[in-house]
Amino acid sequence: MGIAVRAQDNKTAAGTTPPTLPGGTQMAPAQVDPKDAGKFKFEEETHDFGEILDGPAAEYDFEFKNVGKSPIVITEAHGSCGCTVPKWPKDPILPKHKGVIHVTFNTTGRVGPINKDVFITSNALQNPMKLHITGFVKPNPANENKPAPLPPVPPAAESPHGKIIDNH
Asked: Do 45 and 27 belong to one domain?
């Protein structure tokens, strides 16, 4: 059982608020002994997409195994910007079992170097866990032949005598 503490925003490592006793006193989360915690072991923590074209999404599966003694529960994952979106297993990953963090990077309009992070919040020993994607987005030749969009037409000017029409 945890120790009672007074706290306004006492979040657990899993991102949830611990139980509250009458009077607003929250229970401190029970600490997991590091030797008993779940532990991520990723096949790779950094993935290099190499050179990819602007436009299509770049996707990669970061595969991992729980090499710890307790199940890993992933409560949240997010990219360092909105162009990097992870999907993670919602069910606990039992010891000696595998899981996947699927990462999608939106290349559209992002010509240049890729250097993004994915942060995973869980009850694992490594919390937060950070994954990394790199690469380079090249201009897409298919997009170069598209005509540029026309500028918006300004509204007609008004005068005391009516609208002014510009007929070049």
From this structure: no
